[in-house]
Amino acid sequence: MNIDEIRTKIDAIDSDMLNLFLQRMDLMSSVADYKNTHNLPVVDRAREREVLAKIMDRAGDMEEYAFYFFSKLISLACARQNEFIDKPTKVRALAERVTAKLQDVFPKTGTVACQGVEGSNAQAACDKLLPRGRIMYVKSFKAVFEAVKSGLCKYGVLPIENSSNGSIRAVYELLLEYQFSIVRCTDLFIRHELLAKPGTKLEDIRQIYSHPQALGQCSDFLSSLKGVEVLPYSNTASAAKMVSESSEQSIAAISAPECARLYGLNCLRDDIQDSDNNYTRFICISKEPVIYAGSNRISLILACSNTPGALNDILSKLSAHGVNMSKLESCPVTGRHFEFMFFLELDASVQDPGILPMLEDLERTCPTFTFLGNYALV
Asked: Among residues 113, 177, 254, 325, which one has the fewest Cβ atoms lying within 10 Å of its Cβ?
């Protein structure tokens, strides 16, 4: 046979396969009805293993290909069943409540809490997210959440991830603790400079202060210095302010360039960050969940069972709905033996077809499921 004849045969087989696939998927509504009536879970591992075992027994030397083909088919069938399951979920109740009062435009003003002082990167992020916002500075990430919880501020702005130094897990832990929602986020280019009091030279420096994230982002520069103690501080701008108010001439701060002007300091070295592509992502949080028009990103925190293939099951659900995952990061669960949570970011909206059933599926099957928000990156 020539290639055209082979392709004709393949096209005929594909047509038959499509018809059978549609018939199989159509039966999923009946399966879901039965499971609804008898209060059964969508996922039936024993049934899946039984089906796959029979397939592999018949597949001969195509066993591996048959296994993956039917595994994907089972994932698609589960995804279809979830569209008919009527067991209530928290994520559906939340999404329906929020989208019923869908906001049109993200506000440009409002009271907003951020950690640090004037000149901090968080302040620059506040100005970008809420150009006419009224900023209240607090001393810690937790204090940002407390300010929002108490009603002193409607919003809070916090760093959550750096392109060079990874996620800020303390913020994720606070999101879990307070159950607040992410309503907006933005990426900010971060430049770091070594700042000291006027008259101080680089060789005079014995101690350098900054936020641990900034210290990590400047590790190459710091490792090149000899006889210098590197000390963590609550905030880059607060470190610069402390240096300016100190009588010591042997200390310096790693801070944003703006802090030199604000606090009367001199720049000893500029652009000391390890990477020229150094961005920090800042989130805007709200006590009440809100979804604004144009929201196209979903953040989740999940835990899966500590069994082979558990993470793959989660990823298969995303793949079955054609959802792009822009972030997947693991984090050990404190006090548990080799158990992990996962931070996920998805390019999707709860208003997209199939996304809400997929989220419900994850909520039903994951031991821990936290919906952090549906928002836009600006």
From this structure: 177
Same domain, residue pair 143 and 282:
yes
Whole-model pTM: value is 0.77
Helix segments in 160-209, DSSP class H: 169-178
CATH of the domain at 331: 3.30.70.260
Query: Which CATH number belongs to the domain containing residue 137 in this structure?
Result: 3.40.190.10
Contact 197, 243 (CB under 8 A): yes
Helix (H) or strand (E) holding 286: strand 279-286
> What DSSP character marks residue 196?
E
251 and 231 in contact (C-beta within 8 Å)? no
Residues 28, 63: one domain? yes
The whole-angstrom separation of Cα 84 and Cα 96 is 17
**Cα torsion angle, 52, 58, 60, 62, sign:** negative
Both 282 and 157 in one domain: the answer is yes
**DSSP label at residue 103:** B
- Residues 271-296 pLDDT 10s: 999 988 889 999 999 998 888 888 99
- Are the C-beta atoms of 254 and 120 separated by less than 8 Å? no
Q: What residue numbers bound the domain in which 221 lies?
A: 193-269
Sheet containing 193-196, strands listed edge to edge, beginning at the edge strand earlier in sequence: 229-232, 207-210, 251-255, 193-196, 266-269
At residue 268, φ and ψ (nearest 5 deg) are: -90, -35
